[in-house]
Known about the structure:
Pfam families: adh_short_C2
Shape: globular
CATH superfamily: NAD(P)-binding Rossmann-like Domain
CATH class: Alpha Beta
Strand order of the largest sheet: 3-2-1-4-5-6-7
Number of strands: 7
Bound molecules: NADP nicotinamide-adenine-dinucleotide phosphate
InterPro entries: NAD(P)-bd_dom_sf (IPR036291), Sc_DH/Rdtase_CS (IPR020904), SDR_fam (IPR002347)
Strand content: 5-15%
Family: Belongs to the short-chain dehydrogenases/reductases (SDR) family.
GO molecular function: glucose 1-dehydrogenase [NAD(P)+] activity
Helix content: 40-55%
CATH architecture: 3-Layer(aba) Sandwich
Radius of gyration: 18 Å
EC number: 1.1.1.47
Amino acid sequence: MGHVSxxxxxxxxxxxxxxxxASRGIGRAVVGKLAVRxxxxxxNGRDQVVLDLAVKEIEDAGGSAIGVQGDFADPExxxxxxxxxxxxxxxxxxxVNNAATSAHSGxxxxxxxxxxxxxxxxxxxxxxxIIQAAVAGGLPEGSSIVNISSAGAQRVxxxxxxYTAGKSALESLTFTLSRELGPRGVTVNAIEPGIIKTxxxxxxxxxxxxxxxxxxxxMQRLGDPSDIANAVLYLLxxxxxxxxxxxxxxxxxxxxxxxxSAHKIGVFQ
Length: 269
Ligand SMILES: NC(=O)c1ccc[n+]([C@@H]2O[C@H](COP(=O)([O-])OP(=O)(O)OC[C@H]3O[C@@H](n4cnc5c(N)ncnc54)[C@H](OP(=O)(O)O)[C@@H]3O)[C@@H](O)[C@H]2O)c1
């Protein structure tokens, strides 16, 4: 009888992962953990200098990595990313669609057409286009894709309603793609991070707000990028081969406390 954890330790060994937005924050934590487990990693971001530093850190720790500079708003970007991965490593096993921005902060009522379409598109199309290019590039059976959404996708948010609508759409696409790619042995899932201590969420938690926001989280602390990276590795790993079309919320239990920020509900003084 086979051992349940057979092959678990070397699952990532010799495999190749593409992670967008991997120069900082959650993406950087993901590539760090994947490299330690033996995967070669393709890091993306807009700043080659920052990418080179991250690649060097991974290589110094014994890992294998390349940095591919590119902006997800560039229509050529998906082909460039997949092409660079294929020419360096000759295969793609994992795709983590992580990079995201929001072109609008404020009420949905105040959002103009351009900021609206830019925000919705940037949270959906790059992920779809990269998946299309990766499939065309020959994702093997046993591959996995993880799309980074947000716990806000299921919430009303006072200043990020357009961004969270983009994340809701990303989750819907995740469900459909899981159906389209499942028969090929490829899983597609999403993760909803809560408040993670990165630059992107800085306005919510930096400075004295951290204590107030932490008190609203049942686990009494904000998330660390590694909290999300651990969940990504689970979804890419051998123990999640029947997890497909799922959304994993990783937020310390914050979702069950309500949607408003500490500042808004008066906890923050
Ligand atoms: N932090 C949170 O609390 C939180 C909560 C919910 C969901 N999320 C989601 O988690 C993901 C990662 O966020 P994070 O907090 O780790 O953000 P972050 O620390 O700000 O890092 C963002 C990464 O994306 C890259 N990036 C930004 N714009 C890009 C573009 N146009 N093209 C290519 N790369 C780009 C950045 O590098 P460059 O700037 O050098 O390009 C950086 O590597 C996002 O999808 C975000 O929506 C985060």
